[in-house]
Design goal:
66% of the residues lie in helices and 7% in strands. By secondary structure, the chain is an alpha/beta fold. The chain folds into 3 domains: 122 residues, Rossmann fold (3-Layer(aba) Sandwich); 172 residues, no CATH class; 173 residues, no CATH class. Helix 1 crosses helix 4, helix 9 packs antiparallel against helix 10 and helix 13 packs antiparallel against helix 14.
Length: 490
């Protein structure tokens, strides 16, 4: 049987590729052919239309919006989250077989339901909203990484000097201002810092724009981005951007339902949707939604600022548990978004705890493969080597291969290590001015020596915990084998 698949996760780094690999292996073991389109961070070469036409079924393993989904119209489809494809790819191949085996009458679909029959474990209104948000996060992350690291470089090289303090004369030549005693390094730092600030300032508009894009396709982008910019202007921040994206997408979708014909129909996406959508979102954000969200954001900021002592440590524990629970999934993204919100509000300790807790899962598992290599197969050892870099870069997804193979022992171990790391980050009063970057933004970390100590302690605890559970499991298995041999011998 010939199958096709699409994988897509919010970051487009790990889940997408691992889901694709799992589906390819499972299909090959069952004697099928499969071609997978990975809609990852580097973009996706689209599947050949002839390949799609010859396929018996399609599998969507996605956490974000599938681009150009209409290409697969009429194909029997199985739709799940990427994590489902990683954990149980063989069952998804079986489900695709079953869907492909249905009669044409069973496959018949209405115009309102372009893809069917759909065997899905990720349906419902709540799942749709989650995917809209994850699509926004997917497009936002490059701005987070690029802007955060440029800000970090600017701080490290020359301090927080703005380009406004640097004079530009004719023909693009740079002239140091007379009232600043700066050198070339400070100028480079100012350049990097200012570009980073601009990129980081695009987080909320991009988030809002691509939430709307996930809901209403391209006509939603302009109203969403403008709504996000308004959210920034009125102080509604990250939460305001999410609301603006939902408003923009809903507004455009409502206008799409209006029956129009001829030239006006062709003009709707170019003029009417952006114009009316932007107007609706702007008015609602300024007059209705903005003030309550701003007030809620201010209360959350006050709550964060007021936390101290045991409450702060508890916050670190909760952040750590969330970061390690699904390693880049929705729960992890909620904690990360909370860190960005706090960072925008000027609370630098929360972001420090978030990043530290997100680094220890891959680092801990990398160390575990070094301490007890006989507990791991060759592919896991290779994953451990890559996990050093991924952990140091704050890519929590580096832990996924281990968790997928042994979730009952690995995930609790990761959560213990990350919870301890998050708590220690608060205990050591660590701060972080960048939203990403791992050890490469050490210049932006306050109390960085103790911060690295917290990460090291969490890494060691994670490694010891996972190896202890694996050793216990092996001991139990060995004892069971021994008891069986005694019985057989008797």
């Amino acid at each position: 049987m010939k199958l096709v698949a699409v994988t897509s996760c919010p970051t487009g780094i790990a889940h997408s590729e691992m889901a694709a690999e799992a589906l390819e292996v499972a299909a090959r073991e069952k004697g099928h052919e499969i071609e997978v389109e990975v809609q990852g961070a580097a973009g996706a070469p689209p599947l050949d239309p002839q390949v799609i036409a010859s396929a018996a079924a399609v599998i969507f393993a996605v956490d974000a919006m599938v681009r150009d989904k209409e290409r697969f119209e009429g194909l029997p489809a199985v739709e799940v989250r990427t994590r489902e494809a990683i954990d149980r790819a063989a069952q998804l191949i079986d489900q695709a077989e079953a869907a492909a085996g249905q009669s044409p009458a069973q496959r018949r679909v209405s115009a309102a339901t372009p893809i069917a029959p759909k065997t899905t474990e990720a349906t419902g209104r709540g799942e749709k909203v989650r995917r809209w948000f994850m699509t926004g996060v997917s497009y936002m992350i490059p701005f987070v990484v690029g802007g955060g690291i440029l800000i970090a470089l600017g701080f490290t090289i020359g301090g927080a000097v703005e380009v406004a303090d640097i004079q530009v004369i004719d023909e693009g030549q740079i002239q140091f201002p007379g009232d600043l005693d700066v050198g070339f390094a400070t100028w480079l730092g100012a350049l990097s810092f200012t570009i980073g600030v601009v990129a980081f300032g695009m987080l909320v508009p991009i988030l809002a724009g691509f939430i709307a894009y996930a809901m209403a396709d391209r006509p939603g982008i302009a109203p969403g981005i403008v709504g996000g910019l308004i959210a920034q202007q009125i102080g509604a921040g990250f939460l305001g951007g999410m609301v603006a994206g939902l408003l923009a997408g809903a507004s455009v979708n409502m206008m799409k339902r209006i029956p129009v014909k001829g030239t006006l129909k062709r003009m709707m996406p170019i003029i009417v949707y952006p114009l009316i959508g932007t107007l609706i979102v702007g008015v609602v954000m300024i007059l209705v939604v903005g003030e309550p969200i701003t007030a809620a954001t201010d209360r959350m900021t006050d709550w964060l600022d007021g936390m101290s002592g045991s409450n702060q440590i508890l916050l670190g524990v909760i952040i750590g548990l969330m970061m390690a629970f699904d390693m880049g999934g929705p729960v992890n993204k909620v904690a990360y978004s909370f860190g960005i919100l706090a960072l925008e509000a000027g609370n630098l300790e929360v972001m420090a705890a978030v990043m530290a807790a997100g680094m220890t899962p891959p680092l801990g598992l990398a160390l575990a493969t070094v301490l007890r290599p006989h507990f791991y197969n060759e592919s896991e050892k290779q994953a451990g080597e890559a996990a050093w870099i991924m952990g140091a870069s704050f890519i929590t997804e580096g832990a996924i291969p281990f968790a997928a193979a042994d979730p009952l022992r690995v995930i609790p171990s990761l959560m213990v290590g990350s919870a301890l790391t998050g708590a220690l980050s608060f205990v050591f009063n660590a701060t972080l001015r960048a939203p990403h970057g791992g050890i490469f933004v050490v210049g932006l970390i306050g109390n960085w020596v103790l911060y690295l100590v917290a990460i090291a302690i969490g890494t060691v605890v994670t490694a010891l915990a996972v190896n202890a559970l694996k050793a216990f499991h092996r001991t139990e298995a060995a004892e069971a084998v021994g008891r069986k041999e005694v019985v057989l011998g008797a």
